[in-house]
Amino acid sequence: MAVLVFASAWKVLKANLPWLVDEMAIAPEAIHAIVIQVTSFLNCHNIASRGVVGRQAFIEMHLIVDATDVEKSHQITEEVEALLAAKYDPVRVLIHVEPPEYKSDRIAYEPAVPGPARSRRRDR
Ligand SMILES: [Zn+2]
User: Fold this and answer.
1) What are the strands of the beta sheet with 56-65, ordered from one edge?
2) From the CA of 100, how far away is ligand 1's center (Å)?
């Protein structure tokens, strides 16, 4: 019985609050295609999105910028946010800025595989 109640509650939650559920809202490749328009762009990977486009979308990514100072790096993230907002507003964008050696070709975010900590892939 408890399981049934939980299952139907989950159904209701999932229907009404899709942003709580870790579902992909936008194809990572589509986001990547927008980000690469930004000047001073070096690399963008681990892109994830949630929510509903047109209602409230959330995007996160790792970004490597062609800058070494905080001001310039921040300015680049603002450019990325503006481009994404122009296309997906209302959207909240979280950008994780990384140093050049974290460059990765893994465009889409892949959750870490559970297992012994030692064999787990480093988050980069
Ligand atoms: Zn990274």
Assistant:
1) 41-52, 56-65, 91-97
2) 10
Beta-strand (E) ranges in the chain?
A: 41-52, 56-65, 91-97
Residue pLDDT, tens place only, 66-110: 999 999 999 999 999 999 999 999 999 999 999 999 999 999 998
CA of 62 to the centre of ligand 1 (A): 5
Give, as one character, the DSSP assignment of residue 111. Answer: P
CB-neighbour burial class of residue 120 (10 A; exposed 0-12, middle 13-18, buried 19+): exposed
- Evaluate whether 35 touches 26 at the Cβ level (below 8 Å): no
Integer Rg of the chain from CA: 17
pTM of the predicted protein model: 0.72
Residue 97 Cα, ligand 1 centroid: separation in angstroms? 8
Neighbours of ion ligand 1 (CB under 5 A): 62, 98, 102, 124
> For the structural domain made of 19-111, what CATH number should be given?
3.30.70.1350
Query: What is the distance in A from the centroid of ligand 1 to the CA of 56?
Result: 24
**pLDDT computed for residue 116 by the predictor:** 61
